[in-house]
Structure formats: structure tokens, C-alpha cells
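Q: What would this chain look like folded?
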Amino acid sequence: QVQLVESGGGLVQAGGSLRLSCSASGVIFGTNAMGWYRQAPGKQRELVAQITGGGYPNYADSVKGRFTISRDNAKNTVYLQMNSLKPEDTAVYYCNRVWPTDFGSWGQGTQVTVSS
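A: My prediction, written as C-alpha cells:
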């Protein structure tokens, strides 16, 4: 059974930085494209960053140039470095597989709150 554990969220002022981590177990991690998703209150979950098993990243326009996704396959962990945070980045952040589907279960997420 896949288990995903996100951490690293918190309260930060606009312009600040946070680094999120996601540890995965129960899965052959290195072969999967992984992504960071976020869900703000009253909104649908959206994919903000993804990375292939080989380390190639891609970003949503809303975070491009501010967020950096990376992974350590030896540690079964994916990271999201978030810089120049804005109030609109406030959301619960989750990680999961991005292709062909998610893993079928989600972690508890980590709350990111950006104050203006």
C-alpha cells in the first residue's frame, strides 16, 4: 500500500520561502513521475509542479520562476522549494504520482499559509 507523507508547510509572510518534502513508501518511487498539487478553500485541487523519474521538471504558469521541484530517488522523496510566496499560494499541498493516474490514495497534505 502506498503511503505519502508531506511536511514542511507553515505560516510565512509574502515574499518568504518554504521547502516542502514528501516521502513515499510502498511504491517503486524512481520510475514514477511525481507532482505537487495544491487545494485552496473552495477550489479544485491543481497540479503546480511535476518531475519525471529522470528529473525533468515542469511547472504551472502561476508558480514558474518561483517554485522548484526536485527529487531524491534514493530517499523516495520529492521536494518543493517555494520562493517569493504570495497570498494566493495559500493552500494545502499534496504530492502524488501524475501519470498515468495518481496512486489512488493521498497523504494528509501540509498547510501553507502566506500572509500579506
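The beta strands are 3-7, 10-13, 18-25, 34-39, 46-51, 57-59, 67-72, 77-82, 91-97, 110-115.
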